[in-house]
Amino acid sequence: MSLRPPVTIALVLLVLIYTNYVVLRFAHNQGSSSWQEAASNAPPLTRRSTRRIADGCYHVFIDVGANIGVHTRFLYEPQKYPDSKSAVSHFVKHFGPERDNRDYCSFAFEPNPIHKERHLELQTAYKRMGWHYHPIFAGAGDEEGNMTFYHMHDQSNMEFGFNSLRTWNARGMEGEAEVVPIIRLATFLLDQIRDRSLPEIVYGASTIGPKVVLKMDVEGMEYVILPDLVTSGALCQTVDFCFGEFHPQQFFFPINRKETHGGLFLANAEEGKAFGASLIRALQSSQNCKTIYSMADDEKYLKDQEIDGSAIPFPEPSNNELFDGHKI
Q1: pLDDT-above-70 percentage for the chain
Q2: pLDDT, mean over the chain
Q3: Relative orientation angle of helices 4-19 and 269-284, to the nearest 10 degrees
Q4: pLDDT of 204-248, one tens digit each?
Q5: Which tens digit of pLDDT belongs to each residue from 45-100?
Q6: Among 18-22, 275-279, 319-323, where is mean pLDDT lowest?
Q7: Nearest residue to 137 via CA among 203, 43, 208
Q8: How far apart are CA 325 and CA 328, in angstroms?
Q9: What is the mean pLDDT of residues 299-314?
Q10: SS in 3 state form for the chain?
Q11: For a tag on the chain, would you pick the N or C end, based on fewer CB atoms within 10 A?
């Protein structure tokens, strides 16, 4: 089968990296008290807050497709996850081995409402430690609005396949539709992360400049999101390191976005694999793109459990640590 069309599309994207012709901005946000509230209420996010959500964050981790938030725990509590396949080592490489968690902000995109309570519990636990964790209850896409996702009813695996492509049908599963808010990831990166104000105080090693690391596991939507991140310049201008997977399973295909996404059509897994590889090759071939991309998927602790099946406990502050932002 000829792989020419996906490669041709990627070459066009390479040209667009140099031009960076699309940079969107949010307008002034007058209707919500927080980014989380805006995401939860699902309005079209065309407004802009006067203060960026990442202002005051030295380092930033963005988890797109967070499920139950384990990758943020890999960052903040790596000692609890000795068998991590790749994520912990990625954080060591790009953020350094000696870290002070007060220098970091983690933003977790998760559209599945069944995980909302878990994220709020994790946010509360981290707040007591003085760590910054911001769940965003929305999916990521290449446009603002709403999208229909489908439940997988595989709670034993934390519904890790919750997605917009209805792949449960190909797996012989039954599940109901769920309409969720969608945030354009490129706009979020350009408007809320790239030009953030850095803090005056850095607690950890300041020899490592401010970094942005992004993990993307979006159940087939990467074929739509990544081209937008590349052509808008959002990835190359904002993200230092990106890791994630292109889902190669045949049940994700065909992907047909001819009418809405610039003619994107991927007939099968072979075309999808070639398209993903050519996208990565394009962005890594540009001297104007700082992003390093790694095909990595770390699901070793998918359920956030020990080997014996017990839950890995949330952290508790000691007497010399922080409690709700105040020393005790």
Answers
A1: 74
A2: 80
A3: 30
A4: 876 789 999 999 988 888 888 999 999 999 999 999 999 998 877
A5: 334 457 899 999 999 999 999 999 999 999 999 999 999 999 999 999 999 998 99
A6: 18-22
A7: 43
A8: 10
A9: 90
A10: CCCHHHHHHHHHHHHHHHHCCCCCCCEECCCCCCHHHHHHHCCCCCEECCCCCCCCCCEEEEEECCCCCHHHHHHHCHHHCCCCCCHHHHHHHHHCCCCCHHHEEEEEECCCHHHHHHHHHHHHHHHHHCCEEEEECCEEECCCEEEEEECCCCHHHCCCCCECCCCCCCCCCCCCEEEEEEEEHHHHHHHHHHCCCCCCCCCCCCCCCCCEEEEECCCCCHHHHHHHHHHCCHHHHHCCEEEECCCCCHHHCCEEECCCCCCEEECCHHHHHHHHHHHHHHHHCCCCCCCEEEECCCCCCCCCECCCCCECCCCCCCCCCEECCEEC
A11: N
